[in-house]
Amino acid sequence: MLGWKLFVRAVTLLVDNIGDALKVSGMLYLGIIVLSVWLDVPTAQDFSLDGSSFPVDGMGSAFFVSVATLIVSLWVAVAWHRYVLLDERPTGVIPTFRGSEMGAYFLWSLLIGLMIVIAIFAASIPLGLVLLIVPAGVGALVVTSGALFLGMILFYRLGILLPSIAIGKQMTVSDAWDATRGHSGTVMVLALLTVGISQALQIPAMIDGGSGLVGTVYQTVIGWIGLMLGVATLTSLYGHLVEGRPID
């Protein structure tokens, strides 16, 4: 099965090059951990540095950490795509900051997300008819599952253009659609594997609430795993379907 082979290829590249993977992302995610621990306050609190103090609001802190995490995620994603597809190896403690590629990557991610939302909304109309002929609980499950599957298929079919942005060879939406034509099953397998593993890793944090230093570190680590799995699978998908790279 092509989807499974691509996933194994993505994981193998990560494992075999774990040193470079950590060079690409390790210090950046360590910074997120430090920032999260420093700002992890449940209520407004005063921090005193040199005799003066300033208030830190819990919600504002969470927003600040979220923005920092987004920037780091874009930074790492672009760097890993370039590492695999261009053999651009990290030379310092952090990868090169590529603002233009990161900005385009972010904007296209938003655009792809918007297209997925529109497609799901359009598909929900016929799916909603299911609610009229089956029990409510079953109907809701069918509609929700159908929307989720559609969203995952569309993300991987369109998301294949994201690696092209990172390496400066941007594809169009039609290019991405054509490149993944006939591979709906492949992208579904990839989506189920990456999303399923990421969600499974969240279970321990959901059980104990994920609070405190250990919880913060754990949440950041599983966030790193989820990001690297997603980016690696997109890279493998692009490499095989667009550049014709072997997966065996």
Radius of gyration: 20 Å
Output the number of helix runs.
9
Poorly predicted ranges: 41-56
Task: Report, as a whole number of angstroms, the end-to-end distance.
Answer: 12 Å
Strand content: under 5%
For the biggest sheet, the summary is: 2 strands, antiparallel
Main-sheet strand order equals 1-2
| Percentage of residues in helical conformation | over 70%
The geometry reads as: globular
> Based on helices, strands and strand pairing, what is the structural class?
mainly alpha
N to C succession of SSEs:
HHEEHHHHHHH
Number of E-state strands: 2
Mean pLDDT: 82
Describe the structure.
- With 248 residues, the chain is mainly alpha-helical.
- The protein has helices at 2-16, 18-39, 58-86, 99-128, 136-159, 161-166, 173-179, 184-208, 212-241, and strands at residues 45-48, 53-56.
- It has a two-stranded antiparallel ribbon.
- Helix 5 packs across helix 8 (184-208).
- The protein is globular, with a radius of gyration of 20 Å.
- Residues 41-56 have low confidence and may be disordered.
Features:
mainly alpha, 9 helices, globular, 248 residues, 3% strand, two-stranded antiparallel ribbon, single chain, 2 strands
SSE layout:
Elements lengths: L1 H15 L1 H22 L5 E4 L4 E4 L1 H29 L12 H30 L7 H24 L1 H6 L6 H7 L4 H25 L3 H30 L7
Antiparallel strand pairs: 1-2
Quick structural overview:
The protein is 76% helix and 3% strand. It has nine helices and two strands. Strands 1-2 form a two-stranded antiparallel ribbon.
